[in-house]
Amino acid sequence: MGINGNLGNLIFLWAMLVGVVAMANKQHRPFEQAKGINGLDKLIIRDYRNRSVEVYLYGGQVTSWKNAKGEDLLVMSSKAIFEPPTAIRGGIPVLFPQYSNTGPLAAHGFVRNRFWEIEANPPHLPSKTYSKVDLIYRSSTDDLKTWPHKFEYRLRIELGHKGDLKLTPRIKNSDVKPFNFTFGFHPYFAVSDISQIHVEGLHNLDYLDQQKNRTRFTDHAKVITFDSQLDRLYLSTPNKLRIVDHKKKKTIVVYKEGQVDAVVWNPWEKKVSDLGVEDYRRFVAVESVAVEKPIILKPGEEWKAVLQMYVVPTRSSGHPHILKT
Ligand SMILES: O=P(O)(O)OC[C@H]1O[C@H](O)[C@H](O)[C@@H](O)[C@@H]1O
């Protein structure tokens, strides 16, 4: 075979290789798609150690985050309702464009009651992780009747190399006039027993007591412990908060950027219709929020934040052993 023949073979092989790689890239998605409760679409991100994150397109809501032992680090209410337009109680609800009842909209806004989509080619967002999914929710014509501002909400959900869970929200003003919003993520973190944990990182900060018409107080306690209902909005908090579980000897680290406030909530025995009577014992909500100073976006502008969560062993001193992130 002459030089031309060899060159022809090489070109043929190269074209085959390019084709195979392109097909593999197309078919091998970093997540599986499945049907969840009541036929609602869900996505499952899994890594090589069988750690996983489950996300419902309804609400763009993470409903499970499991470690390699199959333990869920988030809690779902035993009475959670998977029927739109009801919001799903548990996991990590997405709160936008309004936190709680701080404005004229329904509590916690409306994107937790909307169907999100997978975005195959989102605008560039660097990441070292393969196990991830990008979601998007674009305001609909119906939404504009309740909140007259066009927006695009992109949410990247990643399972990190150390089993950490990272959420990166990006909100873009796609309208012709500025708007402002308040914002939050509402994780229901799994704990051994609510009376066996404390939350730290909020010492000496001001908070609005949501059980007392948001009256302002300063928290002088070193850590927050729980023996009754608690619902506080802490203002301008550090980036890192910790949930120390004494019984499990584990600490959940909550790292946040761009959401300067934080809510700590446990309803205790207060009646919540879609929460099982004993469910309050198994979770604490430590929410990363931006409430006191609403975020303002001009037309075309985009806002980005981060919420990253990971679990580390608690040392015998009671202090968490923090790994570098
Ligand atoms: O019942 P939801 O609208 O889901 O709200 C659940 C809870 O969310 C937040 O944590 C608020 O601080 C609480 O006041 C509220 O009860």
Question: Layout of SSEs?
Answer:
Layout: H1 3-27, E1 31-35, E2 41-46, E3 52-56, E4 61-66, E5 94-95, E6 117-118, E7 132-138, H2 141-146, E8 151-159, E9 165-173, E10 179-185, E11 188-190, E12 197-200, E13 206-209, E14 215-218, E15 223-224, E16 230-234, E17 240-245, E18 250-257, E19 261-266, E20 283-297, E21 302-304, E22 306-313
Antiparallel strand pairs: 1-2, 2-3, 3-4, 5-10, 6-7, 7-8, 8-9, 9-21, 9-22, 10-20, 11-20, 12-15, 12-17, 13-14, 13-16, 16-19, 17-18, 18-22, 19-20
Overview of this protein structure:
The protein has a single domain (31-313), classed as Beta-galactosidase, Chain A, domain 5. The N and C termini lie far apart (57 Å). With 325 residues, the chain is mainly beta. The longest helix is centred in the first third of the chain and has 25 residues, at 3-27. The mean pLDDT is 93. The strands form three sheets. Strands 6, 7, 8, 9, 12, 15, 17, 18, 21 and 22 form a ten-stranded antiparallel sheet that branches. Strands 5, 10, 11, 13, 14, 16, 19 and 20 form an eight-stranded antiparallel sheet that branches. A four-stranded antiparallel sheet has the order 1-2-3-4, with no helix packed on it. It has helices at residues 3-27, 141-146; strands spanning 31-35, 41-46, 52-56, 61-66, 94-95, 117-118, 132-138, 151-159, 165-173, 179-185, 188-190, 197-200, 206-209, 215-218, 223-224, 230-234, 240-245, 250-257, 261-266, 283-297, 302-304, 306-313. 39% of the residues are buried. Strand 17 and strand 18 form a beta hairpin. It contains two helices and 22 strands. The protein is globular, with a radius of gyration of 22 Å. The structure holds 6-O-phosphono-alpha-D-glucopyranose (G6P).
